[in-house]
Amino acid sequence: MSSLVLAHTRYQLLEQIRVPIGLISSAFFPAASMLAFVVPFAADDPMAATTATGSMMMVGAMSASLMGLSISVAQDREQPWNGYLRTLPAGPLPRFAGRILTTMAVMLLAVIPVLVIAALFTEAAITVPRLLLGLAALLAGSVPFMLLGLLLGFLLSSKAAIGVSQLLFFPVAILGGLFLPLQVMPAFVQAVSPFVPSRGAVELVWSATTGAPADLVSVLALGGWTAVTAVGAAWAYRRDEGRRFS
Questions:
Q1: Contact, 96 vs 2, CB < 8 A?
Q2: Cα–Cα dist 149/169, whole Å
Q3: What is an example of a Pfam family matching this protein (predicted)?
């Protein structure tokens, strides 16, 4: 890892620590959802509790990557310092890499309260290797949401990014079956769910933590969303750069 990437990562982590509201919100919502949806209804079933814990971990990761990243990128664009950084010869890679690494760190911190609640109040059971594999799957499954966060951050103002990211977050999470099992959802939700990126992402987490096979259609759809959001994020960056520096 280059020294520039480390410098940007350190700088952005310090920003998170100095203004921790984003970190607190990313950690609070999945923990509160865990207490509201998992502990009262699935705590006594080890398999159900384990899969539900994986779902709440994905909720925290989505919050940090989609909402947190889009808002932080949009806010950066409004600062004079960002314009100066974009004139430097290092290019965009160190900033992007530092932003992604910072977001991943926030994700991992956000899931700690969920894991603590699962350990204390449910019968969820997992080995250390499975837990580490689950965290790796969580990071991998969050890639399209990070790219979508970059896309929104480069297209929208900070105020618009707050509203749009929230409007996207909840429907995508619900359609992916993160809050309630799909068996209790309407038929149209069950039909759409395999093609929503949150479903593919949480399938990876479930497979890693429980050993159950992941749904192939959902995983392929996740790959498709990753490709589409990567193209969209690159386009949004070039569009923003052209408007500001051409």
A1: no
A2: 11
A3: ABC2_membrane
Q: How far apart are CA 63 and CA 30, in angstroms?
A: 9
Nearest CA to 157 out of 78, 96, 79 is that of 78
Note whether 130 and 209 are within 8 A (CB): yes
Cα gap 31→79, rounded to integer Å: 33
Q: Strands, E, within the chain: which ranges?
A: none
Phi, psi of 45, deg, nearest 5 = -105, 110
| Tokens matching residue 145 | 């949401």
Contact 2, 94 (CB under 8 A): yes
Whole-prediction pTM value?
A: 0.88
The residues, ordered by sequence, that sit 6+ positions from 138 with a Cβ below 8 Å of its Cβ are 57, 58, 61, 107, 111, 201, 204, 205
pLDDT in tens, the chain (246 residues): 578 778 778 877 887 777 677 677 778 888 998 998 888 888 888 999 999 999 999 998 998 889 888 988 888 888 766 666 666 666 667 777 888 888 888 888 889 999 999 999 999 888 999 999 999 999 999 999 999 999 999 999 988 998 999 899 999 999 998 988 888 888 988 999 999 999 999 999 999 999 989 999 999 999 999 999 999 988 998 888 765 554
Closest CA to 31 of 54, 51, 58, 60: 60
CA-closest candidate to residue 95, choices 73, 119, 78, 75: 73
